[in-house]
Amino acid sequence: MAKKSGRIIVTLECTEARAAGKPVSRYTTTKNKTKTPARMEMKKYNPNMKKHTLHRETK
């Protein structure tokens, strides 16, 4: 029998593009919910703004 994994799929959405009124970029990734219960934040590339911006986990 397989072990139950604590990994879930999360969506990261750009925060700076929304404030600037441009289209947002989204990325999907996985995280271990038991070790990282807080919302995830990463710097990712936003092709609409042509620079690296802060992306936060959405609900």
Residue-averaged pLDDT: 92
Largest sheet: 4 strands, antiparallel
Strand order across the largest sheet: 2-1-4-3
Estimated radius of gyration: 14 Å
Helix count, DSSP H or I runs of 4 or more residues: 1
Query: Helix content range of the residues, please?
Result: under 10%
Q: Shape, please? A: elongated
Order of helices and strands: EHEEE
Quick description:
This protein has 59 residues and is mainly beta.
Question: Any key phrases for this structure?
Answer:
59 residues; 4-stranded antiparallel sheet; 4 strands; 8% helix; elongated
Account of the 3D structure:
This protein has a four-stranded antiparallel β-sheet. It contains one helix and four strands. β3 and β4 (51-57) form a beta hairpin. By secondary structure, it is mainly beta. The model has no long low-confidence stretch (mean pLDDT 92). The protein is 8% helix and 47% strand. The N and C termini lie far apart (31 Å). It has one helix at 16-20; strands at residues 7-14, 26-32, 41-46, 51-57.
